[in-house]
Design a protein that fits this description.
The protein is of the alpha+beta class. 24% of the residues lie in helices and 30% in strands. It has one domain (14-48, 55-202). The protein is globular, with a radius of gyration of 23 Å.
């Protein structure tokens, strides 16, 4: 046996923290298991149909507001069968992986302490803490800047020390467009590339015909 397999390599979905100014990757979080489902909703941004007014021709005011929802599983069961090879899992279960995801929802402790020092020193105006640019990656053709709008963890099993060993993480991610970030922002450029990739995919579909709809003309 040569060991050669024709099975395609399965890519991992995940998240990337990026410094928007330098484009330096700060952290990569790959999902242990890809979600079986990925739901997307698009809220169309148009004008011409305001309440109490006669409808007009549809006019886009901005890109649609897209929300991505997925559920990720994290499981240490397989690792627990080989304790000598996975000492970190034996010590803490999947708590480190959960903590890594949780920290996406918080500013850093050092930033909070620095903000407190500024307040104690009498700084008149303290700017909100800017987070790194968060990217959602689902294959090479789907890389989008996002903001976490919903985050939930359900811990389902524990080891004898009450470390979690199995959990489900639910994420709702709002895609950030040029309307949110601007065209000069690195995230804005990534959104344009994402939109162009969708346009290219749509253009690859063979053109439909009126006859397929039972029509001879309009």
């Amino acid at each position: 046996m040569s060991g050669y397999s024709q099975s395609p390599r399965v890519l991992k979905g995940g998240l990337i923290l990026l410094d928007a100014d330098s484009a330096q990757v700060q952290k990569v979080i790959a999902l242990q298991y890809n979600s079986d489902t990925l739901s997307r909703s698009l809220q169309v941004q148009t004008t011409g149909a305001e309440a109490g007014r006669r409808s007009e021709a549809v006019r886009f005011t901005a890109p649609a507001i897209e929300t991505i929802r997925l559920e990720a599983e994290i499981d240490a069961t397989d690792h627990l069968e080989f304790p000598d090879q996975h000492e970190a899992v034996i010590a803490s279960g999947i708590a480190p992986q959960l903590a890594q995801l949780e920290l996406l929802a918080h500013p850093g402790s050092a930033q909070l302490l620095d903000r407190n020092r500024q307040a104690q020193a009498g700084t008149l105006e303290i700017a909100p803490i800017e987070a790194p640019l968060l990217l959602f990656v689902w294959g090479r053709k789907r890389i989008v800047p996002v903001r976490i709008s919903e985050f939930a963890i359900v811990e389902e099993a524990f080891d004898p020390l009450l470390n979690p060993i199995r959990a489900r993480v639910t994420l709702a991610l709002r895609v950030l467009s040029v309307e949110d970030l601007g065209f000069a922002h690195r995230g804005g450029g990534l959104f344009i590339a994402y939109l162009q990739a969708r346009e290219k995919l749509a253009a690859s579909v063979p053109a439909g015909s009126l006859s397929a709809l039972g029509l001879g003309g309009l």
